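Q: What does the assembled structure look like for these inputs?
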Amino acid sequence: MQSWLYNVDRLVETFSNWLELRVGSSIAAEFVKAILAAGLIAVLVSVLGLVLVYLERKVAAHMQQRLGPMRVGPHGIFQTVADTIKLISKEDIIPAHADRVIHTVGPLICFVAAFMVIGFIPFAPGLQVVSLNVALLFILGISSAGVLGIISAGWASNNKWSMLGAMRAAAQIISYELSATLALLAIILFTGTLDLQGIVESQRTGWWIWRAPVVGIFAFLIYLIASTAECNRTPFDIAEGESELTGGFHTEFSAMKFAMFFLSEFINVFTVSAVSATVFLGGWMPFHVDGLDSLNKVFDLVPPWVWFSAKTGAIIFIIMWFRWTFPRLRVDQLMRFEWKFLMPLALANLAVASVLAVSGFYFFRS
Amino acid sequence: MNIFRKSIDALMGLLSGMALTFYYFIRLDKVITQQYPENRDSLTMFPRYKGKISLIKNEATGLYNCTACGLCARACPNNSITVERDKDPQTKKPRLVRFIYNFDRCTLCGLCIEACKFNALKMSQEFETAVYDKSELVQILNKDRIPNSLVNEPAQDSSGVLTTGVKSTPQAKGEL
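A:
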C-alpha cells in the first residue's frame, strides 16, 4: 500500500538526497532542482494548455448539440496540437505605430504571472515547488499582476478597441479581485494559516465548504463567480468583447504573442480552480467524515493527487459550464453586480464567518 | 425584501439554463451534427429539405402524372423548364415527350410545384448535385418513359428558341 503512488513526498525526498550526493554541494543541488522544477512546470503548463483547449471545445460542442473537433486524430484529440503548430509558424505582426517594446512585454507579463502561480499549488503531500507560509497571499498578488500585462498590451497596440478592452479588463479584474479575496479570507479565519499545505492539513476532518456552516458554501459561490470574472471568461468576457471590440486587448496580437494570452487565460482557469479546490474542497485531502473510520479508509485508497485532479477538474468543468450557458453582461451591469451585490455579500459573509470562527462554532473541531 | 426575491429568481433562472445545457451535454444521441462523407449511406435528409425538382409517378400504373400542360414552364421565372409534347397516336390526346430541366438556371423557388394542377411535380430530397461538366445540369426528368422514337435525341438548352418553354416535337408541330 505504501507505494510511490501514495507517497509522492518520499519519492521527491529520495530524488533530492540522490541529487545532493551526486552534485556534491547543496547550493548546486538547489540550483539543479530549481531548473528541474521550472522545466516540469513548463511541461505541465503546455500540456494543460493543450488539454484544456481541447476539453473546452468538446464541452462547448456537446452543450450545443454538436460534436466539436472530430477530424484530426480519433475524436479530434490532435486538434490542439495542430493549432499550436499553426500558431508557432504564423508571422508575428506588430502594428506600424505600436510601441514595440511594450507590445512584446505585455503578453510576457501576462504569461509569467499565470506561470509563476503554478509553483505554489500543492498537488499532493510534498509535491509542491515552493512552500511558502504566505502562499495564498502570494498567489493573489501575482495573479493580479497579470492585469499589468493586459493594460500594457492594450496601450501598446495603439488601437481604440484594444485600449477599451484593456480598460474594461483592468476595471473588471480589480473589482472582482475584492470579492474573491474576501471570500477566501472568510475561510482563512477558520484555517488560521495562509500556507496552502497548512490549509489542506486543516481539512483532515472535513472540507471547509460544509464544515464552516453556511458561510463555507457562500464563500465558495462568491469565489467561483468572482474568479470567473477575474479570468475574463463568459459571462464576464466584456474585456474581450468579441462582438463589439473584435477581441479587446489582444486584437493586435498574432502568432505566439496571441498564444501567450490564450495560454495564460487557460492557466488562470486552472489556477483558480486549483485554489478553490485547495481552500474549499480540501485539496489533495480525501473525503473524510470524522468518526466514520471505515468510510475514511475506503477514500484513502485513492491517491492524493487523484483527489486533487478530480476536484480541480470538476471546478474547471463548472467554469466551462458557466461559459456555455450564460449570456454576457453589459459593462454597467457587471460593475453594479460586483459593487452593489457581490462585495456587500462577501463582506457580510466575512463578518458572519469571523463571529463563527471566534466562537468556534463549526463542525468537527479537533 | 425585494432584492432577495429577485436574487432567488435570477438564481433559479441561471440554474434552469445550466440544467438544460447539462442535459444536452450528457445526451450524446441528441447531437445533430452529421459526419457527412462517412455516414453517406445512412444519411437521410430532413423532411422539409427542398432539393431539385422531380416528376411524380403514379404508383399503380407506373406512369408519370404529368399531362404536359406546360403550366410549370410558364410559371418558371428563370425559364429552366422545357416541356416537349406530341399527340398520342391512339387517344389523340397531348402526351409528354421529354421534360427538360435546366438545373443550372433553377433557383429552387418552387413556383413550378405551386403551378402544377395535376400533382405531377415535387421537390426531391437529393442534395448531392455537383457535376463535372455544366452540360450534365441539363437533365431529362422522364428519362425512363420517353416515347421510343425520341430516345436518342440529346437534351439541349432550347431557351433561345422558345420563350414559353412549351415546345412541340417536330413531328407533332403540324397537328397542334
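Chain A has one domain: 78-359.
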